[in-house]
């Protein structure tokens, strides 16, 4: 570049997108929305052994207004779903969502009247981490997938995520449920989690 030849090694030129996205992908402020047993693996992942500080996400925030990464950890039932939606709405922009585990991704084996069959019926999801519970290595892979997604975003023209209407219906009214319309999602799929794998294949095929 011309500036580098003029000023030598003291000047480095780059794109605005690259600089801002580089800062964002290494400074996540996670908000753990823990509802069930996957919380044990969440605590294990955030321990010193796995060194989440490498990703700049080692300090969970417990106020949604100070967070930009919502990690939904565990089962979400119909009574807690409006609370999760309110937490998501209170988070600052830009914000991202990780579905942590089979229950958050697809309802897991709790396919009944009380359980939301995937949080993407209520809020948009960026990364699905399958498993019951997912191992810490899968969680770290999910964080790296989210970093890749953030690194490729256009800062000045960032499209809003596809929003679901936020209404949660019972299993008796499945015909009225707004189908997942989010197309930004990535997934870490456990080969043993057939339900989550089928759900992800549906996203990939556009069904």
Automatic annotation (TrEMBL):
Keywords: 4Fe-4S, Cell membrane, Iron, Iron-sulfur, Membrane, Metal-binding, NAD, Quinone, Translocase, Transport, Ubiquinone
Highest taxon, organism lineage: Bacteria
Cofactor note text: Binds 1 [4Fe-4S] cluster.
Principal localisation: membrane
Enzyme's top EC category: translocase
EC number: 7.1.1.-
Catalytic activity, reaction form: a quinone + NADH + 5 H(+)(in) = a quinol + NAD(+) + 4 H(+)(out)
GO molecular function, one term: quinone binding
Ranges for domain NADH:ubiquinone oxidoreductase-like 20kDa subunit: 37-145
InterPro entries reported for this sequence: NADH_UbQ_OxRdtase-like_20kDa (IPR006137), NADH_UQ_OxRdtase_20Kd_su (IPR006138)
GO cellular component, one term: plasma membrane
Positions bound to [4Fe-4S] cluster: 37-38, 103, 132
Compartments (UniProt record): Cell membrane
Membrane topology, from the record: Peripheral membrane protein
Gene3D superfamilies, per the entry: 3.40.50.12280
Cofactor: [4Fe-4S] cluster
GO biological process, one term: aerobic respiration
Protein's job: NDH-1 shuttles electrons from NADH, via FMN and iron-sulfur (Fe-S) centers, to quinones in the respiratory chain. The immediate electron acceptor for the enzyme in this species is believed to be ubiquinone. Couples the redox reaction to proton translocation (for every two electrons transferred, four hydrogen ions are translocated across the cytoplasmic membrane), and thus conserves the redox energy in a proton gradient.
Subunit annotation: NDH-1 is composed of 14 different subunits. Subunits NuoB, C, D, E, F, and G constitute the peripheral sector of the complex.
Similarity comment: Belongs to the complex I 20 kDa subunit family.
Protein name as it appears in the record: NADH-quinone oxidoreductase subunit B
């Amino acid at each position: 570049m011309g500036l580098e030849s003029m000023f030598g090694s003291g000047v480095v030129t780059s794109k605005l997108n690259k600089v801002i996205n580089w800062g964002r992908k290494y400074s996540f402020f996670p908000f753990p929305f823990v509802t069930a047993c996957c919380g044990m693996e969440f605590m294990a992942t955030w321990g010193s052994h796995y060194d989440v500080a490498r990703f700049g996400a080692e300090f969970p925030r417990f106020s949604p207004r100070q967070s930009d990464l919502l990690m939904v950890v565990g089962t979400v039932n119909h009574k807690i779903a409006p609370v999760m939606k309110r937490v998501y709405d209170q988070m600052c922009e830009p914000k991202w969502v990780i579905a942590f585990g089979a229950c958050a991704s697809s309802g897991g084996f709790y396919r009944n009247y009380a359980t939301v069959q995937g949080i993407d019926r209520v809020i948009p999801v960026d990364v699905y981490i399958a498993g019951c519970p997912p191992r810490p290595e899968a969680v770290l892979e999910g964080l790296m997938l989210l970093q890749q997604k953030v690194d490729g975003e256009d800062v000045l023209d960032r499209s809003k995520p596809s929003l679901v209407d936020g209404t949660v219906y019972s299993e008796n009214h499945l015909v009225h449920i707004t189908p997942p319309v989010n197309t930004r999602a990535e997934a870490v799929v456990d080969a043993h989690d057939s339900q989550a794998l089928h759900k992800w294949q549906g996203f990939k095929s556009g069904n």
